[in-house]
Specification:
By secondary structure, this protein is an alpha/beta fold. The chain contains 12 helices and 10 strands. It has 2 domains: 205 residues, 2-enoyl-CoA Hydratase, Chain A, domain 1 (Alpha-Beta Complex), CATH 3.90.226.10; 47 residues.
């Protein structure tokens, strides 16, 4: 059984973490397949939005499978298949799965079907719109094991949330509920589990109706200017706006409005 399910639904890419019997914990196979999935989303111009979710109704992802990964990385055991060998050969794969090394400017929606602990909470910080089932939980328990959440959380979380909320998750060690995560701003919306799929589809379809170059410029600007000075940030924003205004899509939008029809954006 593949650790990652990758499905193209028209202009949408659906990525499903697929180890429900193991709490969707990330092993070597999942690392490599998730890195490949993100690369396909990045490279395929037909894909306008990605949705990441998980199999089952209890766990989104409860971290990394340290029992498999640490012996592999330390040489205590040999790779058992081609994917584990790729993980050893490419030390950047852990960064790639968290979109640390090379940002992905296409919109990413997370449909969080259960507990997101450790690496699960870290992965969510690489996404844009986050819909959680009402029984979901979030947490970074790494310090309890004597390690740190080093897949992006020590940098990202305090930039994405108010400082005190971020530090409660980073230092507290205890999971927070979906309702608490919503109040903090960690997630965008909380719904009953049976509505999760439909809400993710709603957001994905809405993204696909909009101009892809415009959305990517918006996300790129939000990410790249986060720590810049106001002057540098506004300059970058104008560069992005100018590039979009020169696109065919920028002409198609007003034309469609004038002709009272839905625009046909092509990402050009």
């Amino acid at each position: 059984m593949s650790a990652i399910l990758f499905e193209k639904r028209g202009q949408q890419a659906w990525i499903t973490l697929n180890r429900p019997q193991h709490k969707n914990i990330m092993n070597g196979e999942m690392f490599v397949q998730l890195a490949d999935a993100w690369q396909e989303v990045r490279d395929d111009s037909a894909i306008r939005v990605a949705v990441v979710t998980a199999a089952g109704d209890r766990d989104f992802c409860c971290g990394g499978d340290l029992g498999e990964l640490i012996p592999l990385w330390t040489g205590a055991r040999q790779p058992q298949n081609e994917l584990e060998q790729r993980l050893l050969d490419d030390p950047m794969i852990p960064d790639k799965i968290m979109l640390k090394g090379e940002p992905l400017y296409k919109p990413i929606i997370a449909a969080i079907n259960g507990r997101a602990l450790g690496g699960g909470t870290e992965l969510l910080q690489a996404t844009d719109i986050r819909i959680a089932a009402d029984h979901a939980q979030f947490g970074l328990p790494e310090p309890r094991a004597g390690v740190v959440p080093g897949a992006g959380s020590m940098v990202r979380l305090a930039r994405q949330l108010p400082y005190a909320h971020a530090m409660k998750i980073l230092l507290g060690g205890e999971p927070v509920s979906a309702a608490e995560a919503l109040a903090m701003g960690l997630v965008s919306e909380v719904v009953p589990l049976e509505q999760l799929q439909a809400r993710a589809e709603h957001y994905a379809e809405n993204v696909c109706r909009q101009a892809p170059l415009a959305l990517q410029a918006i996300k790129r600007t939000a990410i790249e200017t986060h720590t810049q000075s106001w002057a540098d940030a506004y300059s970058f924003e104008m560069e992005q706006a100018g590039a979009v205004m020169m696109s065919k899509d920028a002409r198609e939008g007003p034309r469609a409005f004038k002709e009272k029809r839905a625009p046909e954006f092509r990402g050009e």
